[in-house]
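Bug #77: duplicate submission created two jobs. Keeping one. Sequence:
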Amino acid sequence: MADEAEFNDQLVVSQIVSGQRNLFRILVRRNEKAVFGMGMSFFRNKDDASDFTQEVFLKAYRSLSAFEGRSRFSTWLYKIAYNTAINEVSRRKEYLTLAEEDAEKLVNSGETPERITLRNAAKEAVCAAVKELPERYRICVDLYFFYGRSYQEIEAITGFPVNTIKSHVFRAKALLKEKLDSLSEGC
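Kept job's structure:
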């Protein structure tokens, strides 16, 4: 099914490049949530994430003829999104991980207050530990665990070699385990 969607994306791209520009909305609809999610992970603000999403799709639209189909369309789009976010973060000097998403989902889940409190405390500990990771580790962790991207896709998005990405994820997990173990010992 995913291969069919990618084939369809490539077909839609070729039709857009051939002049059927109104079909771009299909690509936006298919990828908008993921791009917005990346914007939220970087900027933690719905307005900024919306602006980011529009900017990414505008850049993608302008350079659509450069899409060669050698990778999945979503990977190509994520590379544009990643580069756009990194450039903006460099200007702002901030980065917040997707692991920091609001506890609103928990509140709306119908869980008991005790369970929500425990989960929030655990989430805060993980978020604090993730924030302390070097940025290159946080980026790889976000893309791998929170966006479900493969090592090859992360390589295409970030430009880091696959072995470096594996190393970053491995080291990040070790650092997180160490940090979280030290927190649990204090309880």
